[in-house]
User: What shape does this take?
Amino acid sequence: TPIAEPVRVNQQDRFAIYSSRLDGSERQLLVSDPMREINHARLSPDREWIVFTRYNRFGKDDQALEVYGYDQSEIVVMRLDGSEMLSLLPPRKGVVAANGYWSPDGKGILFVSNDNEKGVARIMRLDWDSKTVHPLQLPDDFSVADPHQVADLVVFPRHGGEIPVSRLWLVNSDGSNLRQLTRPSFGETGSGKGPQLGDHDPKLSPNGARVATMRHVGKDNWHIFVVEVDTGVELDLSEANAVDAVPEWSNDGEQLIFWHVNLDDYSQNGLYTMSATGQQRTRVPLPSGYFYTMPAYFPAGGSTDLSERIIYTARRHGK
Assistant: This one.
């Protein structure tokens, strides 16, 4: 049962979700939390509601972070104007509910949960009107994450368990026409500590013809790839030894917005845009003192106009 909550907006909180224009202007704090990380914020197609993930597994530093695991994560929605907030799937011990994303018609939210008999990560769909949850039909041995849908097509990574490398799959929203899209291979390096090597957080282009994904290719080495849906042809948009992550398409499919880390010069860390071929990298000018991640364009906009609005996660530096 959804639980209503007050909206917290405090500039001193460590974790927050902001919006601004592409030129960094009109920056607005939408929601914050002092102790719990909040991220994966995405705006509904009608620009009325934000869905985001909130974490509730606390570490020794008295903070609940994504890196501490997805146990007791929850799906939260909030009106963009801050007038209402609901925990749609409140936290439960041993249960994952994370990485929500709106269906193209705004009538549902795709997310990942292990709330099943086998405790395996599945793609679920929450119906917005009835608030009921139904699984996307996939084989029982599929452990998945990060679903994204355009029209009738859903893309997701399959990983975990006996799968040594995370690879992308496509399926119709009714569970039909399941097929593998990417096949990255890393030899004996496909196992070990840290995030699984391979593809994560895929996003279909607005016309459904391409997928942008971040690929973990080695320690502290993440590249953005664009993959053609029909042919599987790939284009690597990152330089060697890069940390480029969580790309999202502009509404016209001409640009990607993403999170970049420069391991040699942290002052260059932040949100960037680039063309769909990796050209014209441009940093989004935002205030220092924050670690910015997981950006996305507001729905039904363009890409090149600096007045376009974006939404993103911000983690304040310091205690």
Summary: The chain has a mean pLDDT of 92. The radius of gyration is 18 Å. The CA atoms of residues 192 and 258 lie 26 Å apart. The first strand starts at residue 3 and ends at 5.
